[in-house]
Amino acid sequence: MNKKIYWNSLRFVLxxxxxxxxxxxxxxxxxHKNFEESQPExxxxxxxxxxxxxxxxxxxxxxxxxxxxxxxGVVTDIEENLIILDxxxxxxxxxxxxxxxxxxxxNTISIKGRCIGYDDLLEEIRIDHSFIMKNPQP
Length: 138
Description:
Layout: H1 2-28, E1 42-45, H2 46-55, H3 57-64, E2 68-78, E3 82-85, E4 89-93, E5 108-119, E6 124-132
Parallel strand pairs: 1-2, 4-6
Antiparallel strand pairs: 2-3, 2-5, 3-4, 5-6
């Protein structure tokens, strides 16, 4: 009797374990999102986005968090792998991107990237996987 219960439960549990392991394997190995080829979900000026986050960060997070944005703004600082637009939008460039000598302080540029949130302490909006979309304007 005990062997019969054992085999019946094994017949039920073993397929569930195998299915669970397959699902975990597929989820772990799913391909990453290609940010370069993805289309922006919102197009907005960097100053407008900064104002929206400063006025109500919860509403702005509900709308823009983890979304691909196309942002246009004035370059206010340049570092090795990031560009700061309008003193409040920190764009971390994708590793494939290189800051050229054409991009200078005061230029207006468009950047596409994923919004990863707002830092209340520094009052900065963080954008990662950023791509420079067009030539800067003088």
